[in-house]
Amino acid sequence: MSTFLQYVLSGLSIGAIYSLVALGFYIMWSACRSVNFAHGDVMMVGAVLAVVSNDFGLSPYIGIPLSIVACVLYGVLVERFAVRPYTKEANAIGWMLTTIAIGIMVESFVTIKFGSFARALPSPGVDKPITIFGAGIYLQEMLIPLFVILFMIGLEVFYRRTMLGRAMRAVAFNRIAAGMMGINVGMVTSFSFALAAGLGGIAGILIGPIIQVSSTMGVLIGLKGFAVAIMASITSARGVVITGLLYGVLEKFVEGYISSAAREVVGFSIMILVLLMFPQGLFGRKELTKV
């Protein structure tokens, strides 16, 4: 029983990180039908900057907010110079290549400056594990699923109850019509990338003390976050969170009962099967367009 619970608790923790990354993809897609394909590297940047700020002796109350702000600015710059020039036409996909290229450059730069080895991000949440019915888990791991659920609820309220949230949905539906109605399309798009990047930075800071921080930590997590977003349907925040949590639990059971080497094989095989059976995603609906 304790082993089963251990896998569930650990899976919910890592699954919540996948959900946070996937929510970033959801935010960007929901606003402008484009994403930063190197979004996982934003998570890495947030964690690395938090470690560097700690090395310089900054208080976590100063260093962590500064790291998140830096991620937000990074998201704004990516949208302005790597995405916006390629979204003027509906079918343009140049942003795919440019965002991937920027991610590779950022990762290389961090490797040069930060090093290729992993570093620990200090946190009081990993000082002592908590025992629950024989299963051990750190407080840090317990806080991540709680944070992702609260953020999802806040995001849905934001989209439904605020003018900016409604403007983001309008821009996603039809950029030209939204602009004609007086919505600043450029500002809305920039805000969505900034919000997603800030969330990515927070994800990196939350997971950093658990898996340690390195220049390559965001590659696989970013890919899995994107896979979660696609499996769930990138248009459903609730679906993204639920799918991410389930995917994390599945990984832990595969690790425990088969092997860690089989984790990616099983995980991505299930992703392929899900998309074959549900082309719109598990929580997706067919979009109808009136002509």
Fold and architecture overview:
The structure is a single chain. The protein has 291 residues and is mainly α. It has a single domain (2-277), classed as ABC transporter involved in vitamin B12 uptake, BtuC (Orthogonal Bundle), CATH 1.10.3470. It is 73% helix and 2% strand. It is built from eleven helices and two strands. The chain has helices spanning 2-32, 39-55, 60-83, 94-114, 139-161, 163-173, 175-180, 185-211, 217-232, 237-257, 263-277; strands at 130-132, 135-137. Strands 1-2 form a two-stranded antiparallel ribbon. A hairpin with a 2-residue loop joins strand 1 and strand 2. Helix 1 crosses helix 9, helix 3 (60-83) crosses helix 8 and helix 6 (163-173) packs across helix 8. The longest helix has 31 residues, at 2-32. The radius of gyration is 19 Å and the shape is globular. The chain starts with a helix and ends in a 14-residue tail after the last helix. The model has no long low-confidence stretch (mean pLDDT 89).
Question: Roughly what percent helix?
Answer: over 70%
Count of DSSP-assigned helices: 11
Shape: globular
Q: Which structural class do the helices and strands define?
A: mainly alpha
Terminal CA distance: 57 Å
Percentage of β-strand residues: under 5%
